[in-house]
Amino acid sequence: MYKRYRFPPEIIQHAVWLYFRFNLSHRDIEDLLAQRGVIVTRQSIRLWCNKFGSKYAARLHKRHQGYGDTFFIDEIFIKIGGKQHYLWRAVDQDGEVVDVFLQKKRDGQAAKRFFKRILKKKKGDPRKIVTDKLRSYGAAHRKLIAETIHSTEKYANNRAELSHQPTRVRERSIRKFKFMKQTQRFLSTHAAVYNFFNLGRHLVSAETYRLFRLCSLASWKNAVMI
For residue 106, what are the CA distances in angstroms to 3, 77, 116, 167, 191? Predict the structure, then answer.
């Protein structure tokens, strides 16, 4: 996978990890590597992230332990290249991102396409889904998972709404997304990395958190190894 690249795999892996793990630009990573004596251009870092990010994400998905039985689903407006799109997101009760999917509409057909994606990742029907009162969700629920509990209670979907915050932060830092395909690739990779490092630091002791972090770093190392 790293054949014909001038830089060692360890540097490429570290640069890609920095970009998707933290709110850093390619220029920021260029400076961080330069401080350690590694001279590489931001264009090279961008190409590494585009090529290897999705490959690493696919490997992380294979190593994922599975999702919970309750899905919180929400969609937000997002501008790409000056045009309005909709970013659909599903998270489980533990805050794990099940899927993110960009679409140009939020009608019943769009909801069905998204439901099919998350059902494929779940490999079965969830016990319960929680959404807002958008009618598209009801249509998709009745068509695909009628046996699943569907809750639209007020405030019940806050978990999904809050899960959009990291996307908004990155959107501001890179001064808006430019292309739909590129944005989908970035968000999918970002979600995969986020799941492995979303450790609930405020819910566990410092010792337990450090243990979880070591496990996450080991999973990342296994995913990026040659």
Answer: 42, 10, 15, 19, 21
